[in-house]
Amino acid sequence: MDFLGFLITQCLNALSQASVLLFLACGLTLIFGIMRIINFAHGAIFMLGAYVGHTIVVLTGQFWLALIAAPLVVAGIGALFEMFLLSRLYARRDGGAYLMITFGLAIVLSEAVRLIWGAQPKGIDLPEVLTGVVFLLDQPFPIYRLFLIGLGVSASIALWQFLERTRTGLLIRAVSQNPEMVHALGTDIRIVRTGVFALGCGLAAFGGILATPLFGAYLAMGNNVVVDAFVIVIIGGMGSFLGSVIGSIMVGFVQVFGAYYFPSMALSLLYLLMLTVLIVRPGGLLGKEE
Amino acid sequence: MLRVTGLNTYYGTGHILQGVDLEIEKGQIAAVLGRNGVGKTTTVRSIMGLVPPRSGEVWLGDTNMAGWAPYRVARAGVAYVPEGRMIFPDLTVIDNLRVAERRPAKIWPMERLLELFPALADRRTHKGSQLSGGEQQMLAVARALITDPTVMLFDEPSQGLAPLVVRELVGVIHRLRDEGVTVLLVEQNLKLAEAVGDIVYVMVKGRMMYRAPIAQFQLEREAVKSKYLAL
């Protein structure tokens, strides 16, 4: 009975971990799918979301407001970056230029966060309903982590339905397959690109706020977690949304169980997983070989 | 309806279109012939705004569209059936059409298109990549029509199609003319061009070197072929 309880809490831990990673990885894969850009600023944007969320909570005392407003603020910053800087590079069709500019954004954002918020880690106070624990088979489990799982599941379903059922979702899928043709059929793909980049940034920021009550907001938080996100996107298949959902869950489980059973090689397990997937399916689980 | 004057387009330093002129009346079908690499595709892509011309004018009625972004050209009533069809491979037949259906079509609504192309109706839930070449071509035409265009640009539509399918394509293009759609058809397939064209252009090295009504072209065909089209 003890073991079963342990197993259940570990599984739930893995799923809550996956939920945070999911927001980061989905943004990354959406941006890649539409724009063929690997956004090296994604970790910095995740961090920015956490700090903006922290400030909103400090100013208003409203965790729920921060959860909605901070991603919107960060999405707005992402949209401006795409419109005024990134979009100037599309005509060059040069992957190196994207790398430089998104990497540059990462540096600028990191230094800006350091200047504005300082080097001290920040926290976010949770509202009372999300604090405390519940007992599952006599094992205590934090309510906040259950909340994360619920959010992860509902956000996955919502995003999936958005992509599959709405006209905007259809256009996003079409642009990922042939942007020029969508443009020639009367849709201004510049708006689609700006929108998707903003959405990806907003999702990353959302993940950043969600991670803060667990680990705090600190300057390296993005760097640590963005590597996991890249692994997820590669496992799931670059540009595949459902692939990223599955990849997030796999990585969540490998991290949580790996840290328990093989603490000395937990990190290498992650790469072992990626390697195994890539040997079996070189394009990722749901990706295409290119 | 569609009038192009002095169009100059470059790819990098390559001067591909060197002053292209062409004019098509409303409801007419113009066929542009020419060997590989003379700039036929670039002509279509320049009109569509996919390759911005460096100079020249593209008149649709009273509007000069030169330099417009492709989506604006499309919204002005120009539809594009590209070389290689460019069907969205992972979208179903219906979703391929829906991408183009920005507002409910008045002249060519979805139901009418599925009637016109029964093969597409049968395969409506199949993905683009699962269709045959002929079905993809019909889908590319249907996808263009659902925008209710006044002008349609066809780039090598017969490429890779069986003769029977080409014949079906001829029927479809005749239907378009009956509906008053203006057509610019770029083709290497002389038979298709002759079967549908009202006027024939021959393009050589980035310029239109020959223009004649179809009746005149048929008289001069062999001379034109050996002068401009022979390899």
Q: Helix and strand layout, with pairings?
A:
The complex is a heterodimer of chains A (290) and B (231).
Chain A (H helix, E strand, L loop, with lengths): L1 H34 L6 H19 L2 H22 L10 H23 L15 E4 L2 E4 H23 L1 H11 L1 H6 L4 H27 L5 H16 L4 H21 L4 H15 L10
Antiparallel strand pairs in A: 1-2
Helix pairs in contact in A: 1-5, 1-8, 1-9, 1-10, 2-3, 2-4, 2-8, 2-9, 3-8, 5-6, 9-10, 9-11, 10-11
Chain B lengths: L1 E10 L2 E11 L4 E6 L5 H9 L6 E6 L2 E2 L5 H6 L2 E4 L11 H8 L9 H7 L1 H5 L10 H13 L5 E5 L7 H16 L3 E5 L3 H7 L2 E6 L2 E7 H16 L2
Parallel strand pairs in B: 3-8, 3-9, 6-7, 7-8
Antiparallel strand pairs in B: 1-2, 1-4, 4-5, 9-10
Helix pairs in contact in B: 3-6
Descriptive tags:
heterodimer, A: ABC transporter involved in vitamin B12 uptake, BtuC, 75% helix, globular, B: 231 residues, alpha/beta, Rossmann fold, 4-stranded antiparallel beta sheet, 9 helices
Molecular structure report:
The complex is a heterodimer of chains A (290) and B (231). Chain A has 290 residues and is mostly helical. Chain A is 75% helix and 3% strand. Chain A has one domain: ABC transporter involved in vitamin B12 uptake, BtuC. Chain A is built from 11 helices and 2 strands. Chain A has a two-stranded antiparallel ribbon. Chain B has a single domain (25-41, 69-229), classed as P-loop containing nucleotide triphosphate hydrolases (Rossmann fold), CATH 3.40.50. In chain B, the strands form 2 sheets. A 6-stranded mixed β-sheet of chain B has the order 6-7-8-3-9-10, sandwiched between helices. A 4-stranded antiparallel β-sheet of chain B has the order 2-1-4-5, covered by helices on one side. In chain B, strand 7, helix 7 and strand 8 (182-186) form a beta-alpha-beta unit. The relative contact order of chain B is 0.19. Chains A and B meet through helix 6 and helix 7 of A and helix 2 and helix 3 of B.
